[in-house]
Specification:
The complex is a heterodimer. Chain A has helices at residues 2-9, 23-54, 56-65, 69-96, 103-129. By secondary structure, chain A is mainly alpha-helical. Chain B has one domain (2-114): Fumarate reductase/succinate dehydrogenase, transmembrane subunit (3 helical TM bundles of succinate and fumarate reductases, Up-down Bundle), CATH 1.20.1300.10. The longest helix of chain B is centred in the first third of the chain and has 30 residues, at 11-40. Chain B is globular, with a radius of gyration of 18 Å. The chains are: A mainly alpha, B mainly alpha.
Chain lengths: 130, 117
């Protein structure tokens, strides 16, 4: 009974306009989402690898396809997913060995991850679109 | 302590460690991939095929994909366990994932060793 009463009195705020995920949670959930995306796209990447190796004509087709903007956009998106999964994964590995585990440090390392992703994506975008 | 945690009594710990070791292994192989890509910088089909010619390179690619598929399989398994509480649905989804992982593994082996490029 006491527990029930206590539960009812708890303040609750689920107003989506006043709450948001903290930065470390954003980095963490993006690691999950990008992981699933990369898994789902795997057959397409293997198909591309197969085409590019199977004959000179198909190799040229693949190369020409990636000169069109929809494919460039896809490549940029996938690169962003991979880069985030990579850096955020290193962050999780660091936490696995009990490094940077306090809230303050976790927030800091989240910012470092997002910064590195942005920095790397400038370079990757330059490679794809430049 | 660590050895005890890795015995059959705690299969979750083994899966956890496998996923991390696969991640580390992939990160290291990836650095090698980047160096070789920049070193050879293939410009045409002949260069591209030549890059995949050495046997050690093919095995390294296979190793990379074995790590990737194990890592992904364990990761997606966790995702399904977290977000799909309805057991029959989860079973079906997990079966689809298992088939996809096996299919991808076979595809990698076939591309690198079965195609005769």
């Amino acid at each position: 009974m006491i527990i029930k009463k206590h539960k009812k009195q708890r303040p609750k705020n689920l107003d989506l306009f006043t709450i948001r995920l903290p930065i470390n949670a954003v980095v963490s959930i993006l690691h999950r989402v990008t992981g699933v995306v990369l898994f789902l796209i795997q057959p397409l990447l293997l198909w591309t690898l197969y085409l590019s190796l199977s004959s000179p004509v198909r190799y040229m087709q693949v190369v020409q396809q990636f000169q069109q903007w929809p494919y460039k956009l896809l490549a940029t998106g996938l690169a962003a997913a991979f880069v985030h999964h990579f850096y955020a994964g290193i962050r999780h590995l660091a936490m696995d060995v009990h490094w940077m585990t306090t809230l303050q440090k976790a927030r800091f390392s989240s910012r470092v991850v997002l910064g590195l992703v942005a920095f790397t994506m400038v370079w990757v975008s330059w490679l794809i679109w430049g | 302590m660590l050895i005890e945690l890795l015995t059959a009594k705690y299969p979750g710990m083994r899966r956890w460690l496998t996923q991390r070791l696969c991640a580390l292994s992939m990160a290291l192989v990836l650095v090698l991939f980047l160096i070789r890509m920049l070193w050879l910088s293939p410009q045409n089909y002949q260069d591209w095929v030549a890059m995949f010619a050495p046997l050690w390179w093919r095995w390294l690619v296979v190793w990379f994909f074995v790590c990737m598929l194990l890592h992904a399989w364990l990761g997606v398994r966790d995702v399904l366990r977290d977000y799909v509480p309805h057991l029959p649905s989860r079973g079906v989804l997990q079966a689809l994932v298992d088939i996809a992982v096996l299919g991808n593994a076979l595809a990698v082996l076939w591309i690198l060793f079965g195609m005769n490029v």
